[in-house]
Design brief:
Blueprint (H helix, E strand, L loop, with lengths): L1 E3 L2 E4 L2 E3 L2 E7 L3 H15 L3 E3 L8 E6 L4 H13 L1 H5 L14 E5 H14 L5 E3 L7 H9 L5 E3 L20 E5 L1 E2 L10 H5 L3 E2 L2 H15 L3 E5 L14 H8 L7 E5 L8 H9 L6 E3 L7 H6 L6 H14 L4 E8 L6 H14 L3 E6 L17 H24 L5 E12 L2 E8 L4 E4 L12 E9 L4 E8 L6
Helix pairs in contact: 7-8, 8-9, 9-11, 12-13
The structure holds S-adenosylmethionine and iron/sulfur cluster.
Iron/sulfur cluster binds next to helix 6.
Length: 472
């Protein structure tokens, strides 16, 4: 690759400076894939733009987990038709731009070929396991090859990558395992992300050390659909990995997501007790408070097992706060089963939950169950779950008032006309606070904030101490 007059030569093609616009749907894994894609494309002279109308290349990173995310993508894809149909004039040259449109991610993995055939404006589609080949696909598109779909799986035995970051923030997502072997009966992920494969512990430690040393990273979120399965094939484990990462000087905080209760091991519980860097937060999706529903979901644990785990975690780290995912209205869920979920909310005392009405995903076992429930019942149960949780969470959050938390500041914004900075505590709660002076700049600073008021959804504080950008 050579650079001449701001044009980059890749193979036989010249790549002038171009802009890429991306829309990401779904989970953190997708957001991280987007980051990887942008990083690869920067080597082909693409800069990221937030303005779709400026883009030469438009990429959708799709999510198939629930119907809502699906619908959003199809509606946004529909809008790109005018980018191609109407005269889309480049303000610099006055010429019509050749906008390339692509779709990646989970929908593209299972429906890539159909998508490119059906949508005239779509030039190519690519699956979840070929994200790191985006350069080749963009090259193909600019060579004139159109209407192709790349949805192959990476067949190599090992999962080996280097984390790419494109932002200047001290927080980085680091994939440690890909895929999922669990096949919960409602979930499309094993079909869109393939089989579980872990990176080697040594590789992850080197990767994180490099990010800390050379990219200013201080907080790392270890990612995977089921991080608790990490390392199984290599006789390594998440608990072990955490204790190794703990040793990296300059790394301040460690998080991981998402966990499956079945695979939480004693060494992970011990890591929560022994690690000084592991955050005081655990996201542990339970999905339902009914054992019969959990069985139909193929979750492989009981409510009792789940509650025992919470107790172990809270004993290991008394500061630990726990969040969860709940699905309302799983096929044929009875009123009694639904009530059991409401009771679980009481017993578990989650700090927050992500809750969803069940949505049938094609190809999953749950989508083939004959089902007596309808949207109205699902909607009502979801509202009941959310209302109950908000009351619980309001009480828990009130307990924060008067306490001081260390916060990593992420951004500033206007709240009812007042400038406020926002960051996260170790326990993953968002905290808003006003600057000491209008000029104070806390971007990516560590600050200590005393909580002065809290509701179920918002926590306000006042700054006690500004510790600056680097915390040792
Ligand atoms: N791996 C995680 C786990 O084991 O719980 C979750 C990953 S999934 C992408 C994120 C959440 O989406 C799930 O925890 C579940 O609550 C929700 N979800 C997945 N499939 C769903 C479906 N068919 N309908 C409604 N919610 C669903
Ligand atoms: Fe989906 Fe279950 Fe795998 Fe989570 S563990 S990604 S819910 S199949």
């Amino acid at each position: 690759m050579t650079t001449e007059n701001s044009t980059v030569k890749v193979g036989d093609l010249e790549f002038p400076p171009r802009k890429v616009w991306m829309k990401t749907y779904g989970c953190q894994m997708n957001y991280h894939d987007t980051e990887r894609i942008l990083s690869h494309l920067s080597g082909m002279n693409f800069t990221h733009t937030e303005e779709k109308s400026e883009a030469d290349l438009v990429i959708f990173n799709t999510c198939a987990v629930r119907d809502l995310a699906n619908q959003k993508f199809y509606s946004h894809l529909g809008e790109t038709k005018k980018l191609k149909d109407n005269a889309n004039i480049d303000p610099d040259t006055g010429l019509k731009k050749n906008v390339i449109v692509a779709a990646g991610g989970c929908i593209a993995q299972t429906e890539g070929k159909e998508l490119v055939q059906k949508y005239k404006q779509l030039d190519f589609a690519f699956g979840t396991d070929v994200v790191d080949n985006i350069g080749e696909m963009v090259y193909r598109a600019y060579s004139g090859d159109k209407k192709f779909a790349v949805t192959s799986w990476d067949r190599s035995e090992n999962y080996s990558i280097e984390t790419k970051i494109t932002h200047g923030s001290p927080m980085a997502f680091v994939n440690i395992i890909k895929g999922c072997d669990k096949f919960c009966s409602y979930c499309i992920v094993p079909f869109t992300r393939g089989r579980e494969k872990s990176r080697r512990l040594e590789e992850v430690v080197k990767d994180v050390s490099r990010l800390v040393e050379h990219s200013g990273v201080q907080e790392v979120m270890l990612l995977g659909q089921n991080v608790n399965s990490y390392g199984k094939d290599n006789e390594e484990s998440l608990g072990q990995l955490i204790m190794e990462l703990e040793k990296i000087p300059g790394l301040v905080r460690l998080r991981y997501t998402t966990s499956h209760p079945y695979d939480v091991t004693d060494d992970l519980v011990a890591a929560h007790a022994n690690s000084k860097k592991l955050a005081n937060h655990l996201h542990l999706p339970v999905q339902s408070g009914s054992n019969t529903v959990l069985q139909r979901m193929l979750r492989e644990y009981t409510v009792e097992h789940y509650l025992t785990l919470l107790q172990k975690m809270r004993t290991a780290n008394p500061e630990m706060i726990i969040s969860s995912d709940i699905i309302a209205g799983f096929p044929n869920e009875t009123e009694e089963e639904h009530q059991a979920t409401l009771k679980l909310l009481e017993d578990a005392q989650f700090d927050f939950i992500y809750s969803y009405a069940f949505s049938a995903r094609k190809g999953t076992k749950a989508s083939k169950m004959s089902d007596v429930l309808n949207d109205e019942i699902r909607g009502r149960r979801l509202r009941e779950i959310q209302d109950k949780q908000l009351k619980i969470q309001e009480k828990i959050r009130q307990g924060m008032v008067g306490k001081t938390y260390r916060v990593l500041v992420e951004e500033k914004g206007l709240n009812k006309g007042v400038t406020k900075w926002t960051g996260r505590t170790s326990c993953y709660r968002l905290v808003h606070f006003e600057p000491e002076t209008p000029e104070s700049d806390y971007q990516w600073h560590w600050v200590d904030v005393e909580i002065i008021s809290a509701t179920a959804l918002s926590t306000q504080g006042k700054i006690v101490r500004d510790l600056g950008k680097k915390l040792q």
